[in-house]
Amino acid sequence: MNDLNGATLAYLGDAIYELEIRNHFIHEGLKKVDNLHKEVVKYTSANGQLIAINKIYDDLTEEEILYFKKGRNHSSMRRARNTDLATYQKATGLESLFGYLYLKQNNERISELIKKITRD
After folding, report:
1. Annotated catalytic residue within 3, 14, 59, 84
2. Nearest by Cα to 23 from 97, 92, 114
3. Domain spans, the chain
């Protein structure tokens, strides 16, 4: 996994994070697709991901912070849409973290972080 760059981890992590957020709200009882979509977007947009990383950052291990930073610090030719660069970078870091946890097959940790993120 050390040979994967932050962008690759974020590419995978984006899908994993969104799937886990969708799964969480379906299990919470949201069934109407419109309502489900509106709730999920609150957590999967770049701004939502910024809020998410702020909620969990202090609970991350040193290794998890390393993978967050690997994604956050990755220089990309992509331009952030609808958000500032700092928010985009932190969102990419969160995705990188989830990509790392998925590849490490740490589903328990993924679930734990999703619960913290979605807790009001």
Report:
1. 14
2. 114
3. 6-118
